[in-house]
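ok trying again, last paste got cut off:
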Amino acid sequence: MKPRYDNIGAGYGRSRREDPQLLARIQAALGSARTVVNVGAGAGSYEPPERHVIAIEPSDVMAEQRPRSKAPAIRASAGALPLRDGSVDAAMAILTVHHWDDERERGVRELRRVASGPIVIVTCDPRVSGQMWLLRDYLPEVAELDLQTFPLPEQLADWLGGDAQIEVVPIARDTPDWSLMSYWAHPERVLDEGARNATSGFARMTETVVERVVGRVRQDLASGEWDRRYGSLRALSDFDAGLRIVIASSRRASGPGQADG
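nice, full thing came through this time. structure:
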């Protein structure tokens, strides 16, 4: 089967640019690590500069969007990382675990296996994101899909081990990373085909669903209904739309046969 992002990954390099605040939090969580494996590396956003990065990305479409300044991506899946136990200082996975399908648990445990130090997972809490106006009132299909595909942050922490912590990451209204969660203050973005296609939520919907949502948002913006219902959001500088960072600080000791999950 072709990697999912071979079908839906076009445009990520243009509209999914690094958010400096999130990058700073990832950098801080990685601590003093010098070697980092980035699993589901995509176009290379959030890869820490001045550290040696090993990029793992199964999709040719995503890997081809990596700038020349980034390390070439190794084609492999999260569930079978081509690295030895404890061979890197740290591991990271940025908004990707929900695309690992049947490898979600094994992939997270693989992060733990190969990293001798911190593990950083950026994810979404679907219980929170599903209450954002777009998913709750216009696009419940994505809210339902997210509940099925995103492991809850507590589950990720459990797979990583007892030292994992979960942090809330508010999304700035001017973030350059146009994830679906960033739409909280930007309904006009729903009308932008390029922006929609660079979110896995919209890209995984049928054409019928997308046309329905675009039509309703366009109508409600034109009539002023959107601003009457949600316009107060435009005054906020940031908003908790469900973005979370799960951090495990050190490698968990494990017995024979347990490191792989």
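cool. The radius of gyration is 18 Å. The first helix runs from residue 5 to 8.
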